[in-house]
Amino acid sequence: MQRHSVREAAAGKWPGILAGMGLSDRALSGKHGPCPMCGGKDRFRFDDKEGRGTWFCSQCGAGDGVKLAMLVTGQDFPAAALEIERAAGVVQPFVRQPEQDEAAKVRKLCQAWAEGSKLTHGDEAMTYLAGRDLEIKTVPDCLRLHPALPYYETRALAGRFPAMLARVVAADGTGVTLHRTYLQRGHKAPVSSPKKLMAGKPVSGAAVRLFPVAECLGIAEGIETALAAAQLFGVPVWSCISAAGIQSFEPPAGVRELIVFGDHDSNFVGQAAAYTAAHRLKRRGLVVTVKIPSTVGDWLDQLSADAGPRDAGNCRYVLRALPVIGEGSTLRRDAPDTLRSDAKTGAGKSVDVP
To answer: Which of 65, 138, 196, 337 is buried deepest, with most CB atoms within 10 A?
Structure first.
C-alpha cells in the first residue's frame, strides 16, 4: 500500500487503530503522560491533529500515526501499513471533543499568572530551589508562586498544590505559555507529573528567560539545570524546558555567542539535541560551544556533586560575577546601546499571554 493511501484510509480513525496495536487509553487521551517508546513519565502527548494521528515526545520527537505505529510495533513500513489498512476497514471514525480555543487558553494563562505572586525567600518555591543547592540572591521576575493551583489526572481534579510558574517566551519576546512545577513542603508534589506545561501557543524556539539578554548566552533543558549551569559557569543561562526545546531554540536579537549546556543521557538524547542545535546555529554565524557533564546526568547533578565554579571556555562575554536573575527586559550595562534597545522592545514582555 502506498504511503499516501495508508494515511487516507486511517484518517480520523487513529485512536482505534493504535489502541488495537497496544497503546493504552492514557497514551491516547490527548494529555501529557508516559511515552510508549522511551518510557519518560510526562514527555508524550497524542494530539491527533486533523485526524492524522499526530503525537509529540520531548525525547523521541514527533510524527504522525504511521510513524507511531511503526515505532510501537517495531515493524517496517510495509508490515505496519498492512496492519493499519486492515484495522482501518473495521474501526469507526473517532469524534474528539473540540479543544479550547486560543482565547480560552490565553484567559487561563493570564488568570494563573495573575493569581501568582513574586517569589520571596522562605516560600515554597524558594525553599524548593534552595533544597536543590541553588543560590538565588535576586528573585527571577519570570517566576511566580501560585498558592493553590489545581492538578488534574485524566481530567479529574486530584488536588490543589502550591506551584512555581515560569513564563515561556518566544524569540520575539512574546509569551507563549506557562510551565508549572507543583510543590509540597519545599519538594515536588506527590503526583505522577509534577512538572507540566499549560496549554498555550507553540513552544518551539521559546525559553524561560531567567537572565537578561546578553551577547554571550547559555541554554539548558530544565529550569533548575539552567540555574545550576549559571551558578557553576557564571554566565546567564535560559531554560528551554526539554531536549526538543534545545533543538528548536531561537536566540533573540543581540546574542552573538551561545553555550549549550546539554544533558548527559545514557540514550544520548540530550547530547544529540545539544549538538543538533549547535550545528544549526553555528551555520547562522553564531559562536557556539557545547558543554556536557562528564557523567550521566545534568548540570544540576554536577552542582550537587561538587559546587565548585567551572570554566566557560572561550566565551568573550563571560560575566565577572553572577548576573542579576530575572530582569528579562534589559541587557547587561556593558552591552552596546543598540542591543539594549533591542531588549527593551520585548525581552520577556507580552501583550496577550503572560
So the answer is: 65
Which residues 6+ apart lie within 8 Å of 144 measured at CB?
113, 116, 117, 118, 119, 164, 165
Name the β-bridge partners of 55: 46, 63
| Alpha helix ranges (H) inside the chain | 3-10, 14-20, 65-73, 77-88, 102-115, 124-130, 223-233, 243-248, 269-282, 299-305, 337-344
Domain 3-88 = CATH 3.90.580: yes
Statement: residue 321 has pLDDT above 90? no
Least-confidence region, from 283-292, 297-306, 336-345 = 336-345
pLDDT at 202: 85
- The domain defined by 216-344 folds into Dna Topoisomerase Vi A Subunit; Chain: A, domain 2 (3.40.1360)
Q: Tell me the C-alpha to C-alpha distance, in Å, between residue 214 and each of 203, 254, 274, 327.
A: 21, 7, 20, 11
**DSSP at 98:** P
Q: Which three cell numbers stand for residue 262?
A: 546539554
Q: Per-residue pLDDT for 221 more than 90? A: yes
